[in-house]
């Protein structure tokens, strides 16, 4: 949700004894219902009711601005009304007119500015404080960051080399890091620490720059996810970032958005375009449609575009839709055409160019996803997971864990107390000699579930989705992997399609206070709060959370 002003101008409405106004408008996810009724004294009672639940879920805590209303027949002087919308104040009321007027013709406009909750200052002084979990000190801008060598080495080849015996810095008590600010460097490291700090639109470009410099691949994945799902950066600049820092999925998405003839042409003149690679420039130029094609001799090339929304399927774990669209012309202006379809993103555009005979073309189409081409879950996630635990020199795997099958993992990284207190205890130094080369047997957990848990804390992490988040919370809690709990909380806050009742239960069950407070605030009507209290999940909540919900009901009831 952008912090800029949201402006709306209404059409003209009539209010009289015989007719009242009840109009609904929607602008930038803000719904406004205008009610206007005339009293016996010929005054008009205007009421604007605002629904801004969607912006609120994106971090908006209040909206300020003004409403201006005027009469086209000068039945009353133009009036400007100050507006301050909060969680408890969503209605604006004004009484106007009076006297001899029996009909009012009015228009109104508003200018409203959303205000985001100020971001909390990241607790870098806590994350990088002296601790028995840390064994190295990095000095940036004169400030010290206490870190764990093994943990940083596993997430970055830069730090793996820095801490090796081949570099003199690796033997120093305090290692200086130059040409980077403390805040930027701390943000980079904290992105893959437990309770991770994520980039914002204001920090993401610098974040990508230093992630690229310090070879932190997991940070690149985190930035790409933010840009694809949560960013308000304009498409042209996002395309440049995707090209500059090698994010192919984001690049493909941005190029698909260049689906209007003038957009690529204007972009071609921009500064960002000049800084792009030749490969990306070629893809952009391919999106430009030549104007005046309709004046050419037959056959005429017609462009057909379909846009598919399937976010509900994506929230259930579906990663891809495959099939075809068949287009036909009832007046035989072109040959029936079958177009192959592969959808990987919600809102994805499918475009096809078909040669038609000139003049009017009547078309119809059907799309089909046959059982052979049904939505399928992406298998390469699990291939990536398997590669994490194979024998690789870089990983220096020296311990094995056995569930239904066995795989290798590195004691050097997993024994870090920053990763997990459970694995730190398992690989304690005093019994390393006994455990070298041995396998550890874990019961009551499947191979896939355990591999999914570990792959969330490896470089190029597998991120939570609605299909996996509940299992990740269960596993993260059992094996004391706090970063998994934090990443799952972030998913539930920003991306999940679960209903509020289920998210409240998960927040309570796995101790995610920030998520719980957010969900309690979503119960912003008495109907929603009572629905939560009557749900099956309510009985499974702790007494403390039940009390918060009951307090919410009392507050909404104005008791």
UniProtKB/TrEMBL annotation:
Classification via SMART domains: BTB
Higher taxonomy: Eukaryota, Metazoa, Ecdysozoa, Nematoda, Chromadorea
Residue ranges of domain BTB in the record: 134-201
Protein's name in the database: BTB domain-containing protein
Domain of life: Eukaryota
């Amino acid at each position: 949700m952008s912090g800029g002003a949201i402006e709306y101008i209404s059409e003209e409405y009539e209010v009289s004894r015989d007719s009242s106004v009840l109009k609904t408008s929607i602008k930038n996810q803000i719904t406004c219902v205008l009610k206007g009724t005339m009293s016996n004294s010929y005054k008009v009672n205007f009421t604007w009711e605002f629904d801004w639940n969607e912006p609120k879920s994106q971090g908006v805590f209040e909206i300020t601005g003004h409403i201006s209303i005027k009469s086209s027949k000068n039945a009353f002087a133009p009036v400007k009304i100050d507006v301050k919308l909060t969680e408890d104040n969503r209605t604006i009321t004004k009484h106007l007119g009076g006297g001899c007027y029996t009909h009012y013709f009015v228009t109104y406009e508003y200018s409203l500015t959303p205000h985001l909750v100020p971001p909390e200052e990241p607790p870098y002084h806590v994350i990088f404080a002296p601790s028995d979990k840390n064994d190295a000190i990095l000095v940036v801008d004169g400030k010290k960051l206490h870190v764990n060598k093994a943990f940083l080495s596993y997430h970055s080849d830069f730090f793996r080399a820095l801490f090796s015996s081949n570099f003199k810095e690796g033997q120093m008590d305090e290692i200086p890091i130059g040409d980077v600010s403390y805040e930027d460097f701390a943000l980079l490291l904290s992105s893959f620490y437990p309770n991770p700090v994520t980039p914002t639109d204001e920090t993401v470009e610098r974040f990508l720059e230093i992630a690229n410099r310090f070879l932190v691949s997991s940070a690149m994945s985190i930035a790409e996810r933010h840009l694809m799902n949560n960013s308000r950066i304009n498409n042209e600049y996002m395309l440049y970032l995707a090209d500059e820092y090698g994010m192919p999925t984001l690049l493909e998405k941005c190029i698909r958005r260049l689906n209007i003839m003038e957009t690529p042409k204007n972009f071609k003149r921009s500064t960002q375009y000049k800084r792009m690679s030749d490969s990306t420039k070629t893809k952009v130029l391919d999106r430009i449609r030549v104007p005046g094609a309709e004046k050419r001799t037959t056959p005429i090339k017609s462009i057909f575009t379909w846009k598919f929304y399937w976010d509900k399927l994506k929230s259930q774990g579906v990663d891809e839709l495959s099939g075809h669209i068949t287009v036909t012309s009832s007046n035989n202006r072109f040959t029936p055409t079958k177009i192959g379809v592969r959808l990987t993103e919600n809102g994805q555009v499918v475009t096809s160019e078909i040669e038609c005979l000139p003049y009017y073309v009547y078309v119809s189409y059907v799309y089909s996803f046959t059982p052979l081409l049904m939505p399928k879950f992406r298998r390469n996630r699990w291939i990536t997971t398997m590669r994490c635990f194979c024998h690789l020199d870089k990983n220096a795997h020296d311990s094995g864990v056995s569930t239904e099958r066995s795989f290798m993992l590195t004691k050097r990284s997993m024994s870090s107390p920053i990763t997990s207190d459970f694995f730190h205890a398992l690989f304690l130094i005093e019994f390393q000699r006994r455990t070298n080369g041995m396998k550890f047997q874990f019961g009551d957990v499947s191979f896939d579930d355990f591999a999914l848990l570990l792959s969330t804390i490896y470089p190029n992490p597998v991120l939570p989705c609605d299909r996996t988040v509940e299992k990740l919370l269960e596993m993260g809690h059992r094996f004391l992997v706090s970063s998994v709990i934090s990443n799952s909380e972030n998913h539930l806050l920003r991306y999940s399609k679960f209903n509020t009742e289920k998210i409240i239960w998960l927040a309570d069950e796995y101790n995610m206070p920030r998520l719980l407070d957010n969900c309690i605030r979503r119960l912003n009507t008495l109907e929603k709060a009572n629905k939560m209290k009557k749900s099956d999940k309510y009985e499974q909540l702790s007494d403390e959370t039940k009390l918060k919900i009951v307090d919410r009901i009392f507050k909404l009831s104005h008791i």
